[in-house]
Every structure is written in structure tokens, then in C-alpha cells.
Amino acid sequence: APGKGILAADESQGSCDKRFKPIGLENNEENRRRYRALMIGAPGFEKYISGVIFHEETLYQKFDDGRSFPEVCKALGVIPGIKTDKGMVPAHNGAPGENE
Questions:
Q1: Which residue, 5, 70, 71, 83, has fewest beta-carbon neighbours within 10 Å?
Q2: Is 62 in a helix, a strand, or coil?
């Protein structure tokens, strides 16, 4: 939507660890869920965000009221999406150490 952004809430466990360690927060599933709920539950979120990219883990997590994160987004008129990248893998026909 014009004038709105996309929220990349697709941090992997490793990326969350980099965010949580400096503030002394344990990197576990519940804290990652609460971190994502904090962003999506921010007042006026839908005024500024038109879509959210989620990490696979998030699809199975629930917002504070029991709805899934995609359900919360849809109710706010925000389009939910999922990160399909599973990371680097060895190239089948490449040189040793090459990734695709």
C-alpha cells in the first residue's frame, strides 16, 4: 500500500540470539514469540505496515489472545507472508565450497 512498509519479522533463532544476548534475554521460543507479538501488537501497527514476512516458527505460535500471528495480521488488514529461504546449501554441480 502506498506510504506503508513491510515488516521483516523473519529472524531465525540465530538472529534472535544476536538481538537478545546484549540485553540478557534468553533465546527461547516463548521470548521469540513475545518479541514478535510486541511488534505486531503495537498500537497503530496497521497504519504503517502493509505486510509482514514471518519465520516458519511464527506460523505455529499464537498471539497473546490465542489467535495465530497471520490471523492477527489479516484482521488488521495486513498481509502475512513466510520466508521460504532455508539458508545456504552446497551447490550440486559447483566447486567445493560453492553454495546456491
A1: 5
A2: strand
Say if CB 59 and CB 16 are below 8 A apart.
no
Residue-wise pLDDT tens digits, 43-85: 999 999 999 999 888 888 999 999 999 999 999 999 999 877 6
The three cell numbers of residue 28 are 527461547
Report the alpha-carbon distance of residue 33 to residue 88 in Å, rounded: 25
Contact status, residue 43 vs residue 15, Cβ threshold 8 Å:
no
Continuous H helices in the chain? 13-20, 29-40, 45-48, 69-75
Cβ 57 vs Cβ 32: under 8 Å:
yes
Beta partners for 51?
6, 79
Are the beta carbons of 44 and 71 closer than 8 angstroms? no
